[in-house]
Design goal:
This protein is mainly alpha-helical. It is about 60% helix and about 0% strand.
Length: about 200
């Protein structure tokens, strides 16, 4: 809850409105807060739980992928430990994508789709990171399976880095009971992050 409160307070600084100008001192403090929050999994979870679902729209920016995310957040994301950030950032696309295919109500589908697209904006900041490519390829492999191995999702995300990615994501998908329809949507959503060589 504490992490959610922090994020709610810093959103106006990330996307100022009504001509508000954020001072260099405020921006420096914001970067420190983000760096501190991104040092642990709960901080990353808490931040993105609020940021990706916020109704606060960013101001118009040049039509470049990176410019869709505020510079101070770009820097903080790229400065975070990939072992913590990457699995959680992948979940921020996987879960709302699955919900998009599960929801029947148009408003709920639209909300989930927007959250998934916002999650992709974060993944695009770290496109090409080896750990991201490996996780996305593991997700794609799991999406092609008809069954699942069962088990409980590991709480210790660092284990994703130790050659257990397929098992981790298999357990994750089983835990949420994703079926063929959800898997197909997830595979399509993650395809752009799998790298050029798709012969996994």
């Amino acid at each position: 809850m504490k992490q959610l409160g922090h994020t709610a307070r810093i959103l106006p600084l990330l996307h100022p409105t009504d001509g508000t100008i954020v001072s260099p001192e405020e921006m420096h403090s914001l970067r420190r807060v983000l760096d501190e929050q991104f040092q642990h999994a709960e901080g990353i979870r808490g931040f993105f739980a609020v940021y990706l679902t916020s109704s606060q729209e960013p101001p118009p920016l040049p039509n470049e992928e990176e410019e869709e995310v505020p510079p101070v957040l770009r820097e903080a994301v790229r400065n975070a430990d990939p072992a913590l950030l990457v699995p959680l950032a992948c979940m921020n696309v996987v879960m709302p994508t699955a919900m998009t295919s599960l929801h029947a109500h148009p408003d709920l589908k639209e909300c989930a789709a927007k959250t998934a697209e916002n999650g992709k904006k974060i993944l695009r900041l770290i496109r090409g990171y080896r750990l991201l490519v490996e996780n996305c390829r593991a997700i794609a492999r799991v999406c092609r399976r008809d069954d699942c191995g069962g088990g409980v999702v590991e709480e210790e995300l660092i284990k994703v880095c130790n050659g257990m990615m397929d098992d981790y994501w298999d357990s994750f998908f089983c835990n949420y009971r994703y079926g063929p329809r959800e898997k197909e949507a997830i595979a399509l959503a993650m395809a752009e992050f799998c790298g050029r060589d798709l012969s996994w």
